Amino acid sequence: MTGVRAVLLDLDGTLFEDRRPLPGALATVQRLRASGCAVRFVTNTTERSHREVLEDLCRMGFTEDAEELYTAPVVAAKWLRREGIDRVVLLVPPATREDFASLAVDEEHPEAVVAGDLGEAWDFALLNRAFRWLRGGARLVALQKNRYWQREGELVLDAGPFIAALEFAAGVEAVVVGKPSAAFFAVAVDGLGVAAGSVAMVGDDVQNDVGGAQRAGLRGVLVRTGKYRPGDEQGAIVPDFIVDSVADLPDVIR
Amino acid sequence: MTGVRAVLLDLDGTLFEDRRPLPGALATVQRLRASGCAVRFVTNTTERSHREVLEDLCRMGFTEDAEELYTAPVVAAKWLRREGIDRVVLLVPPATREDFASLAVDEEHPEAVVAGDLGEAWDFALLNRAFRWLRGGARLVALQKNRYWQREGELVLDAGPFIAALEFAAGVEAVVVGKPSAAFFAVAVDGLGVAAGSVAMVGDDVQNDVGGAQRAGLRGVLVRTGKYRPGDEQGAIVPDFIVDSVADLPDVIR
Prior knowledge:
The structure is a homodimer. The first copy, chain A, is an alpha/beta fold. The first copy, chain A, has eight helices and 15 strands. In chain A, helix 3 crosses helix 6 and helix 4 crosses helix 5. The relative contact order of chain A is 0.17. The model of chain A has no long low-confidence stretch (mean pLDDT 95). At the A-B interface, helix 4, strand 11 and helix 5 of A face helix 4, strand 11 and helix 5 of B.
């Protein structure tokens, strides 16, 4: 791949697993930087705050620069301010509430309902309140819209079904700000000072990382680590490049 | 309107209000019967069982024949048996559970999840169980898919948003068996022995009664009582006939 001037790197499953760097991951980041390539770290996680994820990255040796890390909640907060919205309600996991500190919580007249994975906290009363805020004109902003995830071998509802319920009830469409949304990649590319076509997104999720990046005009590189499963590259999304692991990335980007 | 050989009559808002017949409603039913027109009573209500609604109709003098009354749960039970399904889980209001007595409840391996308005009983745990039944291959059958209703002046989530959540989570589409679904009208017309085009559906809900009937090949007559609001007839759905109230119906059907 020629002409790549910046790289967005997915975290869990791409750079590290169980909070330990994958073989060659640290060297890859160093080689990319040495070659003049800008590096950003991007994740959809809402289990940990931006501050906590940055602490992990720092401890593992990837970066200590907060500006290099984009998490879905932080991107949501940036997106909301860019839209001129500053009064919100937060239906997000407790760990990520601090990422919205630049916005005011207003349960009377919110301009946006920000929703993420609340798990067991989703109930009729909360959905009904959210529905009324939306009827009152608030925008619906979703950190992600995944259908389900796996917990101890069992499938569990993720945020997506509850976002879908609110969309149906209020007759609105949520703005999804995590990967694979164009909004996410636009915010991450924005600070790089290069065109989207010169940016490569590298990740283990063919839908969220590769497909989302390609739709936003970036190049999508799939790694065969983390949640990658054989056959992922045979679907509708054709990665611009596939590498066995992030360790092979510097050889691919010239 | 000529050639009408059977009439389906909506209940609340069309034939009666607050469980009292509207002026001329009883006489209308008598005149229709006397003219050789078959009469059926159709309702989406899930607050009362078929037995209880029939008791109301009997007390008011409309009918005492159980075969003349179609409620959404009874239609659902008929539809399920017609599809060869007899093991179900019932996520329906308690009052209507008895309408499914012909089906076996099987929480291990249900063939269908039957869902209605559970109000506050919808929570994460129940939705998650329903999701797993659907992932296991059960069909999703909805008694209705309304977005919301009004309770003491406030809008409250109806069954629709929870059906939408399950559809999104499991990647399936619910079969809706109440009005305005074609399935509902097909079951109601089935026992009449006349073609759908010879049947008129009369109701106060331009979407559920008139629009649904027309899409199922019946004629749709709108009454200006109950939930009717001026302008209802100016939307995309053009009723075959409009009457001020059901009292005017016999003069319209020749």
